[in-house]
Specification:
Oligomer: heterotrimer
Shape of chain B: globular
Helix content of chain B: over 70%
Strand order of the largest sheet of chain A: 1-4
Distance between the termini of chain B: 56 Å
Largest sheet of chain A: 2 strands, antiparallel
CATH architecture of chain A: Orthogonal Bundle
CATH class of chain A: Mainly Alpha
Radius of gyration of chain B: 20 Å
Number of domains of chain A: 1
Strand order of the largest sheet of chain B: 1-2
Strand content of chain B: under 5%
CATH topology of chain A: ABC transporter involved in vitamin B12 uptake, BtuC
Structural class of chain A: mainly alpha
Number of strands of chain B: 2
Structural class of chain B: mainly alpha
Chains: A mainly alpha, B mainly alpha, C alpha/beta
Radius of gyration of chain A: 20 Å
Chain lengths: 352, 298, 324
């Protein structure tokens, strides 16, 4: 079975004729994110939108490497987020003097090891069989974190509280501090992910996705490539889990990393566009913002009838419908949509 | 063997087998659709919830059992046709995994709609079968479980007859064998797909009622899909006998494991045991116990 | 009837061959000493192309042999007791009607199907099943009957992917992007660009391969195989579904590639006409058995070949979907 094969990142966006170099856009986005946002944003914006957006974007980038690039569908992303979050919590708690960056990296590595273990079936299974087998990770990890209270330092029902965040003595506990911390982690990992997907390894991922037999025959180490995809993807998703727990929510429980969360990350990748790094950001933005918009809009149109139960249900309906709509109308996701709009914009403008 | 209670073992085994029947019932709904359209329909659980919720809500409004059943079935058929038109048809010729993701979206829509229409409270469902255990040679068997098994067996028999002896059934098997050839000899694929979705709707309705009577009709009903998935992996996505045997195997193994191994793991292993079992079997037989092994053409 | 066509097209393809050869860069970077040192340029490559035709077949050594290979699918025999020996530097065509087992031969050689009986001898090593994973390192590259490209990659990246077996750098080195990883990347790109140029695909090298017409995709697949600098090139119906012009072009590229890289070519073709002027030797298969082997001229006179082909002359265009 092949995935829909699109790798818009690999087509140079900037043809020589069209002015701006490739790094111009990401650099200007980063400049705005580092300089303008901290000055302009409110606490609400940080806590309700920017922090979950950053964590989910990173999880989307991670899943996209596995599913979008390497073509291995995973329904267990939330499990790897949970592994990352709980590993970071325990490392911070139990290893004296380990700096935050250290527990972050080690948490990612823990998630990578678990991801590797649950990626082993991919060596023999394909398609639906693999997708279903990744659910094993989802249920096993959630069960283990709830069952063994050691993971949560004996707290009730596995709840953990994030430790104070500081890097090199600088406290990052305010919304702005946590935002800058998350932003930096996301920026670095996104940059590395981009380097990865345009490297020989990234090409191997796509080769395995598009045609496993052909990949094997030209000498791509297929098994190694699949396992590497699981490990790298889980590493990134694990760190996204740390951001989710430490920078965004500050208090998490295993149930917060349930199947719905896994689907949410899959939806981010579908909506944003498979096999594009920037798509994960578009998808995450939509997933984070649309419930807020929907609740405002619903309250405005329907008034009191639009209670939280109705909101919850209409959210599910709209989200599900969005997924179907994207798959039918824009299978390459928001990234491709954006790409097309940008290409048409000059012609539309010049017609005036 | 000291401390081993054979009778108790038998009781756990029979209980497990009977709940396995319930798993198999859900799994059959998947197989029907997978065989004809190559889609792993994740929305099967949502359809089950939708059917049960509609049925209960109708009976609560004073409609008699048979009428409520007929109305719900009609609604499920309509739903099947709508899904065929709006989701499957636009996605023809797309990779199977795309279709799977679409059914994931579909499950969100149906779950949301079911609860938006009928509310989120838990409904009791009384099918008039008392859940009293009775004694068969020292082994206690739940009367309800037996009833459920009988219903499931009847349903499988009805579906088998339908697909073996009717024109539509022949079409179904032709499509399952080779969609292109079926198309070439003039079978109307959309019609067959709609029929199959309707049949899957019927299975969802029956399974929904049995499960609903068991655990109450509520949102968590749609999660039985998660119980059916390892059954499918074990039995093969395209085999009805596989679904039945897989269901029985998982039902029995799960109960036995919970009783005899659970204490070593701290309990609650039901949530993942079936998956791990299915995985272990898959490592030996990658196409499941009964799934067809396909030779890859290059 | 097809036999007559051959003569008519012969002039055209040799013209295309010359053209392709002429456009190849003079510097021949494809033959530059390889950084990995395990890419041996075969001495034969340095001989003028004309020598191949003149060379007495008996004096050449076998680089690839099938010995008593049998293969069946669900009781249906695809290959029965097949012996075949391929000589260094030759173009050997395997032809036959549908279901003759032609593709099965390539699939057995490349390890995609394990034979039921018999073995494959490759570079002096004997294999029950050829290890597909090591195929590229053994110096064997192949194309597929029904395209097996990576549609999500550009033409250039598809061809660069053909160098996958040369990559030694770890993904961490590739992330860092200097040293060995950088050398490998630049080397692969340069060689890919060279082969793309050689096959006249340069204007298309940034296009997503899935957006190209079928004939060009076939050519990209040839490029991906050639960039590996294989000693043995297996082409499974490289001209299937092509127009007459495209077939002639492709035939030209195959000869040019052999002459330039010194590659041994095993070529499967459904159309008996195309291969007659292209090949040094022709093996004819029918119902999984080899019914003739010899120079094109010899094979053309063989009564069994004529019999086998008379039966399929009418429906030869119906045969794109050979399954075995």
């Amino acid at each position: 079975m092949t995935m829909t094969a699109f790798a818009t990142d690999l087509i140079p966006d900037t043809r020589p004729s069209r002015g701006l170099p490739g790094w111009a856009l990401p650099v200007s986005v980063l400049a705005v994110a580092y300089l303008a946002v901290p000055l302009l944003a409110t606490n609400y914006l940080f806590e309700a939108i920017l922090l979950p957006f950053l964590a989910l974007s990173l999880a989307g980038v991670g899943l996209n490497i596995l599913t979008g690039y390497a073509g291995q569908v995973s329904l267990g992303s939330a499990a790897f987020m949970a592994v990352g979050a709980y590993a970071a919590y325990n490392l911070n708690l139990r290893v004296e003097g380990l700096p935050l960056i250290g527990s972050l990296v080690l948490a990612g590595l823990s998630a990578a090891v678990i991801g590797l273990a649950f990626g082993l079936p991919s060596l023999r299974l394909k398609g639906f069989y693999l997708a279903v087998s990744t659910l094993a990770a989802q249920f096993f990890v959630q069960w283990a974190l709830t069952k063994f209270s050691w993971f949560s330092n004996d707290s009730a029902s596995g709840v953990i509280d994030a430790p104070p965040l500081n890097i090199g003595g600088v406290a990052l506990d305010g919304p702005v501090g946590r935002y800058l911390f998350a932003l930096t982690v996301v920026a670095v990992l996104t940059f590395l992910s981009h380097r990865l997907v345009i490297s020989q390894t990234g090409r191997n991922f796509i080769a395995v996705r598009d045609n496993e037999t052909a990949a094997r025959i030209i000498g791509v180490p297929v098994l190694k490539t699949k396992l590497l995809a699981f490990a790298v993807s889980s590493f990134i998703i694990g760190i996204a889990g740390v951001l989710w727990a430490f920078a965004y929510l500050r208090t998490v429980e295993p149930a917060g990393f349930n199947l719905d969360r896994s689907f949410q990350i899959l939806f981010i990748v579908i909506i944003g566009g498979l096999a594009t790094i920037r798509g994960a950001f578009f998808g995450a933005a939509l997933i984070v913002v649309f419930p807020l918009v929907l609740s405002r809009f619903g309250a405005f149109v329907l008034g009191d009838v639009f209670d939280s139960g109705v909101l919850d249900m209409s959210q599910r309906i709209v989200l599900g419908a969005l997924i179907i709509l994207f798959l039918v109308l824009e299978p390459d996701g928001l990234a491709a949509l954006g790409h097309r709009i940008r290409r048409r914009l000059p012609t539309v403008l010049s017609r005036r | 063997m000291a401390g081993f209670d054979g009778l108790f073992f038998l009781e756990v085994l029979v209980g497990g087998l009977l709940s396995g029947v319930m798993y198999a019932l859900v799994a059959i709904g998947f197989v029907l659709i997978y065989k004809t359209s190559g889609v792993l329909n994740f929305a099967q659980g949502a359809m089950l919830l939708f059917a049960a919720l509609t049925f209960v809500s109708l009976t609560e409004r004073g409609i008699s059992f048979p009428l409520a059943f007929a109305i719900t079935f009609a609604i499920m058929v309509a739903l099947g046709i709508v899904i065929e038109r709006t989701v499957l048809r636009p996605l023809t010729n797309r990779p199977p995994i795309t279709l799977f993701m679409a059914t994931l979206g579909l499950s969100y829509v149906i779950e949301g709609a079911a609860q938006l229409i009928w509310g989120t409270q838990v409904h009791g469902l009384d099918l008039g079968i008392e859940d009293v255990p009775f004694d068969v040679g020292g082994v206690f068997i739940s009367q309800f479980d037996l009833f459920a098994a009988a219903v499931a067996a009847t349903l499988v028999a009805v579906l088998s007859v339908f697909f073996r002896y009717t024109r539509i059934g022949l079409g179904f098997r032709a499509v399952a064998d080779d969609p292109f050839a079926a198309l070439a000899v003039g079978l109307r694929l959309p019609f067959i797909w709609a029929t199959v979705w309707a049949a899957a709707g019927l299975v969802a309705l029956v399974a929904g009622l049995l499960w609903g009577a068991r655990v109450g009709v509520q949102f968590s009903l749609s999660l039985v899909v998660l119980k059916a998935l390892p059954v499918l992996v074990l039995g093969g996505f395209d085999s009805i006998p596989g679904a039945i045997l897989g269901g029985l195997l998982i039902g029995a193994a799960e109960k036995l494991a919970e009783v005899y191994l659970g204490e070593y793991f701290g309990g609650g292993i039901e949530s993942w045991f079936a998956y791990v079992l299915a995985l272990v079997v898959l490592l030996v037989r990658p196409a499941g116990l009964f799934g067809q092994k396909r030779v890859e053409r290059v | 009837m097809t036999l007559v066509l051959t003569g008519a097209s012969a002039g055209a393809w040799s013209a295309a061959s010359t053209a392709a050869f002429e456009t190849a860069p003079r510097g021949r970077p494809g033959l530059a000493p390889d950084a990995d040192a395990d890419a041996q340029v075969h001495p034969a490559a340095k001989r003028p192309a004309s020598l191949y035709r003149a060379a007495e077949p008996e004096t050449s050594e076998a680089v690839l042999e099938l010995v008593g290979v049998s293969l069946s699918f669900g009781g249906v025999a695809a290959l029965s007791e097949v012996d075949l020996s391929v000589r260094r530097g030759e173009i050997l065509a395997i032809i036959g009607p549908n279901g003759a087992g032609k593709s099965s031969i390539v699939n057995v050689i490349s390890g995609v199907y394990p034979p039921d009986r018999g073995h494959v001898r490759l570079k002096g090593q004997r294999y029950g099943q050829v290890p597909t994973q090591k195929l590229a390192r053994l110096g064997v590259a192949r194309t597929f009957q029904n395209l097996a490209l990576f549609p999500g990659l550009s033409v250039l990246d598809n061809v660069v992917a053909g160098r996958a077996h040369r990559a030694r750098s770890s993904f961490i080195e590739q992330l860092a992007g200097f040293g060995r990883a950088k050398r490998e990347r630049l080397d692969a790109r340069e060689r890919a660009a060279d082969v793309i140029d050689f096959l006249q695909l340069s204007p298309l090298s940034e296009r997503l391969v899935g957006t190209l017409p079928y004939g060009l995709q076939k050519r990209v697949e040839l490029a991906r195989a050639l960039v590996a600098e294989p000693d043995i090139l297996l082409l499974d119906e490289p001209m299937a579904g092509m127009t007459a012009t495209e077939k002639n072009e492709m035939a030209g590229f195959v000869t040019a590639a052999r002459d330039r890289f010194g590659t041994t070519v095993v070529l499967i073709e459904h159309d008996i006409g195309v291969v007659m002027s292209l090949s040094d030797r022709v093996a004819v298969f029918d119902h999984g058995r080899r019914i003739a082997l010899g120079t094109p001229a010899e094979v053309q006179r063989d009564q069994r070949v004529i019999d086998a082909y008379l039966g399929v002359a009418e429906d030869e265009n119906a045969g794109e979907g050979e399954e075995l």
